[in-house]
Amino acid sequence: MQYPKISIVTVSFNSAQYIEAGILSILEQGYPALEYIVVDGGSTDGTRDIIDKYRYRIAHVIYEPDNGPAEALNKGFKLATGEIMGWLNSDDRLHTRSLFAVAEIFNSLNDVSWMMGFPTWFSANGVCVNEIYYNRTGPYFFPQYIGDNLHLKFARWSKWRFAMGDFSAIQQESVFWRRSLWEKAGSHVKEEFIAFDLELWTRFFEHAQLYTAQAMVGGFRVHGNQVSFNQQQRYKQESQKFIDAFRQRLFEQNFGYTMRTLLARLTKPFYYYETPVLKKIYPRVVDLPPHIIYDFLKKQFIIGES
Predict the structure, then answer these.
(1) Which of 60, 193, 216, 273 is the most exposed place for a label (fewest CB within 10 A)?
(2) Which residue, 16, 69, 12, 90, is CA-closest to 47?
(3) Which residues pair with 211 in a beta bridge?
């Protein structure tokens, strides 16, 4: 197997409680072509001591004040030289050997420029507690339907589905992309926003499909002190602003978007509830890409059926 260089950036600020687990989730994979970059914004709680403990295994470490995680990420990505790129926040974790899965996917599937592993969550003490989160007050939840098939329906996105309102579950911890896509999208995250990840996805969608692999790659640690929690209102407002602008750009470039949107809304329940024949309409209307699946006979990842 060929090992493309994978660049991962971690940004931190007073992350002593969680950062060691995040660092080890990357380093202990033993991936031979890893370029790991850590950017700390001036921690005072012992975070720096933990980073220094592993510094000999980290390609670049930056210790200097910044104006937030987006600026820190830009500093890190400017140093990155890998063919494949991604970032992991200091409180999150990668799953075992996930980088080998990422490498195999990009090696064997040339059409894939942007991929996400299957969404997972960790509790505050690091237990993997759920494959995917459900809003149990939403219109498409009913206990008897929570099975493998329904899980897959919440883990596939296209630019049309994104623009029509399903934009809250592209799990950044599981996302990796090719350098060529990063360059096409401007080679930066926008530092003036806290929903900079979602804004970046809108730019990626201008150039590539997002493929979801049926593999566990990374997980989000839920401990209640993330920006998306303690500044939730601002995050939602920025997200909606980005989606509105993205939707306008998409609709300006495509004739018949009003009918397409209406058809998507009408057929979405059939998709979620596995209604025979009718369930196939919604994925076609919103142009959902097929999943990346692992073929045990071929012993490799392949793009499945749509």
Answers:
(1) 273
(2) 16
(3) 115
In a domain, 41, yes or no: yes
Amino acid at position 206, single letter: E
201: alpha, beta or left? (left if phi > 0; alpha if psi -120 to 50) = alpha
Residue 136 clears pLDDT 70, i.e. is over it: no
Token readout for 295 is 């073929």
Work out the burial of residue 282: count CB atoms within 10 Å of its CB; fewer than 13 is exposed, 13-18 middle, 19 or more buried.
Answer: buried
Yes or no: say if 214 and 116 are a contact pair by the CB < 8 Å rule: no
Tokens linked to 196: 């900079």
**Residue the block writes with tokens 């996302």:** 175
Q: How much of the chain is helix, strand and coil, in % rounded to 5?
A: 40, 20, 40
Q: In CATH, what number is assigned to the domain containing residue 125?
A: 3.90.550.10
What tokens were used for 286? 């919103």
Question: Would you say 11 and 87 are in contact if contact means Cβ atoms under 8 Å apart?
Answer: yes
Give the confidence band of 143 by pLDDT, cuts at 50, 70, 90: very low
pLDDT band per the 50, 70, 90 thresholds, residue 142: very low
In a domain, 37, yes or no: yes
